[in-house]
Amino acid sequence: MPTQQQKNQHLLRRAGFGPAASQWDDVQRRSTAELWSALKKDSAAAPTYLNVLDEELLSTFRSPALLRGYDEAGRKRVAAKNRVALRDINLRWLREMSESRAQLREKMAFFWHGHFPTYTLNINNAQLLLHVLRTHALGNFRTLLTQVSQSAAMMLYLNAQQNRKGHPNENFAREVMELFTLGRGNYTEKDIQEAARAFTGWRVEADGSFGFKDSEHDGSSKTIFGKTGAWKGEDVLGFLLDRRETAVHLTRKLYKFLVSDTPSEPRVQQLADVFYKSGYEISALLDAIFTAPWFYETELLGARIKSPIELLAGIRRTIPLTLENEEYYLLLQRVLGQTLFYPPNVAGWPGGRTWIDSTTLPARMRLPGLLREVSAGAASGDGPVNVVNTVFSNAKPRPLGKGTVINTRIDWTAHLKRFDGVKREDLTAAISESLLAIPLQVPASLVTGSADAGTRESFLRTATLQVMALPEYQLC
Prior knowledge:
Oligomer: single chain
Number of strands: 7
Radius of gyration: 24 Å
Helix content: 40-55%
Structural class: mainly alpha
Strand content: under 5%
Distance between the termini: 17 Å
Shape: globular
Number of helices: 23
Strand order of the largest sheet: 5-7-6
């Protein structure tokens, strides 16, 4: 039977990116119900817009003709700004995941980022879509589906802009059914063909907003899911949500993301009923999951493998750190197999055991040992990482081999404070219990045997990093 501390840590790892060092009192003293209420309250406010563009860069995205009038120096300047923006939108959101009190919102926005994957080098479109995901992460799926479907990033990614009367492009219609709503096997090829005709006329305006061009829309009769009429794209989205299969498909995917890599089909069906009957209120589904007694059963603790982003954000929440060269976060994402805003394909990241292989597991376990603490004002040994140009490419990432060092400053204050009053001989067990979702699988002496035992503080610091290097730490 899990302890109250274990239950609370479990909730914070699944409904967010793990307990922050400053939350230790909450983890120990609050009930799970109180903690869940606090998570919802902290995520209730609308998110701020994460903008990484200056006026010049934004203007060139809104009016491509403007860039054509630039001389060579001007074009190079804009290209350099674009590379910086590619980096900054990634790092800004990762920082929000790590530091924001709105953990539930950012965790669910991260889920929808994987459910609605897009790839674009137009940073204006990327940050517009990110704002949609963060704004509606906990709202109604009907609204979220509509706004994502009509976003410039998604429409351009799935060729909706090329879908015209007399020349339908089926790409968006197919993916919205197979991946975003119904799931494979719950529609026919005829449904896709007819739906593609309904989506004709959708267009992206110069500023990235949604537009509709009536002259390019096929206004003739269409039969979709047995319903005949002069349907438009919005009608199709409504038909998809009318089908209970959509609720089941979404619930199963969310169960794997929040609960276990191996879903329980009876629970999925029960939760799908809640979701469907609520009219696709995302908060209703989350309430049903996180207030269910079965969610806190021992078998579900450590039942998921952390994604690379969950791993990186979780480390930052445990030991607030600042890398001297933040571009290392981009490198780490590439090496570990998940780069924000760069999904492998339209299906997103498969997750589960695919996160762990002969390359990524050693890299995960080596990561804590690569952190080298430097004092404020100390000279940095970090050279330029130079991954910005390849973060959105298929270039092979630089490995984390021997000799790799990541200069960082770590604020240990809150983390060390949580162990006040713990006897020296009990520190290893206490550290493990605070960081791991499952018990240590080896004797504690083997884990922290090489920790710096010179002082209590040095032992806590080095033992913490050694526990983070364990295979058990990869689970949540």
